[in-house]
Amino acid sequence: MKALRCDEPGRLSLIDRDEPHRDPDDVLIRIRRVGVCGTDYHIFHGNQPYLAYPRVIGHELGGEVVAAPTGSGLSPGQIVSVEPYLYCGECRACRNGTTNCCRNLQVLGVHRDGGACGFIAVPARNVIPADGLSLDEAAMVEFLAIGAHGVRRSGLGPHSRVIVVGAGPIGISAAIFAKARGAEVTVLDVNDRRLAFCQDKLGVDQVFQGSADIKDRLDAVTDGDFFDVVIDATGSPAAMQQGFGYVGHGGTYVLLSIVRSAITFDDPEFHKRETSLLGSRNATRIDFETVLTAMRDGHVPTDALVTHRAPLDEAPGQIPLWSRPETGVIKALIDI
């Protein structure tokens, strides 16, 4: 079968490899859609902190069951999504239900080869039935779950004043699920096309384009109170540090971004505001189920999210283009 591999930073290729062997507890899935994520772009550009090259990429996966263990509840031909976080189930984090923080976590497409290929075998517990969804939608569940997880971690609720910084796919997912909880949602980005998308397709309450005086502008529009919850999805160390200044007194700062940098903040301001600082890593089964329910209820504008697509054999040439902001990508899908 063909597989899409990042051989080294800046070089993607299609390789031939054997179809996977299915262990007794595994599900064999024919992959039909692969979402291209910020992580994949970081892998291509050489700034993903947990990766060793070469690596078959792809962790946003939608496919069809080929074979499944007896008693798994899965059947051949069934459309499924994949929870790509392979956890041990035994460490303290797993025992506490935070499988996304597993000490031995292996993420498909990052720590081990991913699903941008014809077939993949994964443990049955990592396979999510996507009945009622299209293959496109099944491939989008994972990135939406990351935003849903960050929103759930934040504890925001109805009438919370929230700002999402960074309007890429992860920021968009956070905005969707913050709105679903009844929050007043502001989105901040430097890309005016993405801001227009958030207003027109997501119905966020207000948007701001980044500028040198953005903190003063946010100060003015909030009467100096700033925000109950700040969610960063920029992938920019400078923006992540600046975001501390947007947190109101008694507020919460959630970092969805991960970067190869130390992040610092002003300690007196941090303590004066009694800021709650939260990392948000991946997602859990609960978040996948939240996304599936929202999709089935028509609360996610899935058709609008998919802006670009290509077959697998064109992906090595398309991904470098999609990684450029001027291309206007929201979510790109690879068809297999």
CATH architectural label of the largest domain: Alpha-Beta Complex
Shape: globular
- Helical content stands at 25-40%
CATH superfamily membership of the largest domain = Medium-chain alcohol dehydrogenases, catalytic domain
Q: What is the total tally of β strands? A: 18
Q: Which structural class should the secondary elements be placed in? A: alpha/beta
- Put simply, the count of helices is 11
Instruction: Give the radius of gyration.
Output: 20 Å
Strand percentage, roughly? Answer: 25-35%
Tally of distinct domains: 2
**pLDDT below 50 for ≥5 consecutive residues: which ranges?**
none
Q: What is the H/E string?
A: EEEHEEEEHEEEHEHEHEHEHEHEHHEHE
